[in-house]
Structures are given as structure tokens and as C-alpha cells.
Design brief:
The protein is of the alpha/beta class. It has helices spanning 34-47, 49-52, 62-76, 91-102, 117-123, 142-154, 178-191, 246-253, 256-261, 266-277, 280-303, 332-342, 371-387, and strands at residues 20-21, 85-88, 108-113, 129-136, 139-140, 159-164, 194-198, 223-228, 240-243, 312-314, 321-325, 344-345, 347-348, 361-365. The protein has an eight-stranded mixed β-sheet with strand order 2-9-8-7-6-3-4-5, with helices on both faces. The protein has a four-stranded antiparallel β-sheet with strand order 10-11-14-13, covered by helices on one side. It has a two-stranded parallel sheet with strand order 1-12. Strand 10 (312-314) and strand 11 form a beta hairpin. The chain is globular, with a radius of gyration of 21 Å. 46% of the residues are buried. The structure holds pyridoxal-5'-phosphate. Pyridoxal-5'-phosphate is lined by residues 25, 90-92, 116, 165, 170, 198, 200, 228, 230, 235, 240.
Length: 388
């Protein structure tokens, strides 16, 4: 018998040969700023090697916390106190730690329908019940949400929090409408639940400024906003940040994980700090926003023929994703089979619903492939939808 000698993998991504796979919402490796990160790493080891190699401060390196504080003020018009900012290990880490620290067994956690499917996986690692809330073209339907919360409370349940992606949503690409933002924050304030605002795509805004964050509207102390350097620098750094009420930050900073481990990733945090302070962050952001905008436009151009075929294609103003709604007679799973025969793939809508739905919808990621490949993939998809 021959011995299979395969090396253990280094990265998460698995590409199938001959397939343009728009299922992967990863940054293109060609757009990851390796030189910038290498230079910043060298600078950290010249100026701060002792600190970088030590156990870090629980809520993150002070210089990065201060940079975040001033940058958030500049972008959001609301200045967090230093004790309202925590450096995280990315948004996935933060969602997990918020649940560990704040949720109790049996609590209800509300999620959008559809929602980011891997956040569902994280939430399901905790003994909470996920409750889907209805969304339309403008995001969460506040009236239906309000009814649902009251119903749950009447039946004796504790609604602990809502997890949402209100800006350049994954999977739909859409953003919560302006008036609904304030209504949502006020509803949470009145009903006493927290909002986890996953704001991972905020800075990848293609057509002007992104909508205001829920956090900047929060006068009730109930919004936990999560930002990440995964999309704007590199996911391998595992650095993000959280702005939240001081008691939430304190609870996180005092939990066993940060206490024992000394912050999440001190070296990565100091590298990010170096990049941000030397101006490399903004320069890189300008480049990648242009690149992702071109990719979005290429994909939308390629999908243009779908408009005559009863499909809805929603142009996103930022982020990584285009959501396509098929006519009721077409199944996304059948289209997927046909599309893969032709050489492209995507994630079917069903992946993004807790409790059913999404049979006639699909998500296309435009982050990973160059414009020409996106155009080719779009042509294959159009063909697959036509024959289905
Ligand atoms: C909505 C959303 N949240 C979180 C993440 C993961 O973020 P991080 O790398 O900061 O954990 C992603 C990545 O695809 C995402 O789309």
C-alpha cells in the first residue's frame, strides 16, 4: 500500500481546481500588505522588543487603545473613554468572549434572518437560544422585532442581546436604513437588551461615507461595537477592537482568559499600532477600497443579464458581498449544481438562515478574485440560472 504523504495545512482556504469559488469571503492574498506589515514588525522589534515579547495589558497595548480612541472620535464624532475600548482577537473572538462573559444558559440571542453564518456557529458554542428576526430591503424590521421581544418576555424568556451586521451586511450587502438605526437603539434601551454591532466592513465603503454606527447613536449604554483589522490589514494578525459600555469592557478585561493570557496578541497589537501611527493604515485602506470597488463593479456588470430574468441583484455600497434573489421557481441548490458544472461556485442562501429560509437566494463574494475572473464567474452563473 502506498503511503499518503500530505502536509498538514497552513491556511483555512481550500480551493477546488478549475472552479472560481465565490463562496469564500476572504481578502485576496495579493491585496494583503505584506511589506507594510514586515516594516512595522521590524520597527516594533527595534523600539519595543521587550514589551512586545512580554504578557500584555489585558485590554490591549496602551498606544493602540489611544490611537483607536482618537480615530474613532474622528470617524464617528463620539469619543470613547479609554475604559470603553478593548483590543480584541478579531470580531469572532469578541462575539465568543461577549457570550462567555455576559450570556447565561437559556438566554435568547436575536439574530437577523439572514445573518452571518459563522457568527451563528460561534453563538451555538454557547448554551443560548437563537431567535431569527425578520429583515427587508432596509434591514431589521423594527416593529416585528419589538413584537418578538415582547412576546419572548411575556413567555418568561430573557432576551440578552441582538447580534447584527447593520453596515454592508454579510450576506446581503445592505445597510440598516438611517431612521431605523435610532429606533433599534432606542428599542434595545427600552427593552433592556444589548446590541452586538458587528462592524467589520464599515471602512470598506465604496460610494461615500458609511452610515453612522449604532454605537455613535447610543445614549442608553447598550451597544457593543466590534471593529476588525482582518479586512483592512490582514486576518492573520487576529486583531480587532471593541467600543462598549465601560462595565462590559471591564467584565471582559477581568475575565480569566485575558487575565491569564495577558491580552490577546500583544505583538500583533503593537504591529498594528505602528502601521496606524506611521500613516500606513490609511494609505493601504485607500488602495484596497479602490480595488474592492472595481471588483464589485465587475461582478455587478457581469450579473446585469439577470435583471431581465426575474432575479433581484442588490448593489452593495461596501463590504464583500452581493446577494441575488432568484424567482420562486428556481432553487439555489439546483443552480449551484449547474454552476459548478460550468466552473463557478457560491454559497446558497439557506446557509444564512436560522430556522429555515433562503431557498431562492445566493451570496456571491467579490473579495477574493480579480475583476476578469469575477466577470467570467458571473457569465457562468447567468448561464446556470438560465438552464435551471
Ligand atoms: C460579519 C463578519 N463578522 C466577522 C467576521 C470575522 O472577523 P474577524 O476576522 O475579525 O474574526 C467576518 C468575516 O468574514 C464577517 O463577515
Amino acid at each position: 500500500m502506498s503511503k499518503v504523504n500530505s502536509s498538514p495545512p497552513v491556511v483555512q482556504l481550500v480551493l477546488r481546481p478549475g472552479l472560481i469559488d465565490l463562496g469564500w469571503g476572504h481578502p485576496d492574498s495579493a491585496l494583503l500588505p505584506a511589506d507594510l506589515i514586515r516594516q512595522a514588525t521590524n520597527a516594533v522589534f527595534v523600539t519595543r522588543s521587550q514589551e512586545a515579547l512580554a504578557y500584555g495589558y489585558a485590554t490591549g497595548p496602551g498606544p493602540l487603545l489611544e490611537w483607536l480612541q482618537s480615530q474613532i472620535y474622528l470617524n464617528e464624532g463620539r469619543k470613547p473613554e479609554l475604559e470603553q475600548v478593548v483590543v480584541t482577537g478579531g470580531n469572532s473572538w469578541a462575539i465568543d468572549q461577549i457570550c462567555t462573559t455576559l450570556a447565561k444558559p437559556g438566554d435568547c440571542v436575536l439574530v437577523e434572518a439572514p445573518t452571518y453564518h459563522l457568527a451563528v456557529r460561534i453563538l451555538r458554542d454557547h448554551p443560548v437560544e437563537l431567535i431569527p428576526v425578520f429583515t427587508d430591503e432596509d434591514g431589521i424590521d423594527i416593529e416585528q422585532l419589538s413584537d418578538r421581544v415582547r412576546q419572548l418576555k411575556r413567555s418568561g424568556r430573557t432576551v440578552r442581546m441582538l447580534y447584527c451586521v447593520p453596515t454592508f451586511n454579510n450576506p446581503t450587502g445592505r445597510s440598516l436604513e438611517a431612521a431605523r438605526r435610532q429606533q433599534l437603539v432606542d428599542l434595545a434601551g427600552r427593552e433592556g437588551f444589548l446590541i452586538i454591532e458587528d462592524d467589520v466592513y464599515r471602512e470598506l465603503s465604496f460610494d461615500g461615507p458609511a452610515p453612522v454606527s449604532l454605537w455613535s447613536l447610543d445614549t442608553h449604554d447598550i451597544v457593543i461595537r466590534l471593529g476588525s483589522f482582518s479586512k483592512t490589514l490582514a486576518p492573520g494578525l487576529r486583531v480587532g477592537f471593541m467600543t462598549a459600555p465601560a462595565d462590559v469592557c471591564r467584565a471582559l478585561g477581568e475575565n480569566g482568559l485575558l487575565d491569564s493570557g495577558g491580552g490577546v496578541a500583544p505583538i500583533s497589537g503593537l504591529i498594528v499600532n505602528e502601521i496606524c501611527r506611521a500613516g500606513g493604515y490609511q494609505a493601504n485602506l485607500g488602495l484596497i477600497v479602490d480595488a474592492y470597488r472595481r471588483r464589485r463593479d465587475a461582478l455587478l456588470n457581469g450579473l446585469e443579464p439577470l435583471r431581465d430574468r426575474g432575479c433581484q441583484v442588490r448593489p452593495p455600497h461596501g463590504g464583500f458581498f452581493v446577494w441575488v434573489s432568484l424567482p420562486e421557481v428556481k432553487s439555489a441548490m439546483r443552480v449551484l449544481e449547474r454552476a459548478e458544472e460550468r466552473g463557478m461556485s457560491f454559497l446558497p442562501g439557506t446557509k444564512f438562515f436560522v430556522g429555515g429560509g433562503g431557498d431562492h437566494a445566493l451570496r456571491l463574494a467579490f473579495s477574493f478574485y480579480a475583476p476578469e475572473e469575477l466577470m467570467r464567474a458571473a457569465r457562468m452563473l447567468v448561464d446556470a440560472i438560465e438552464v435551471n
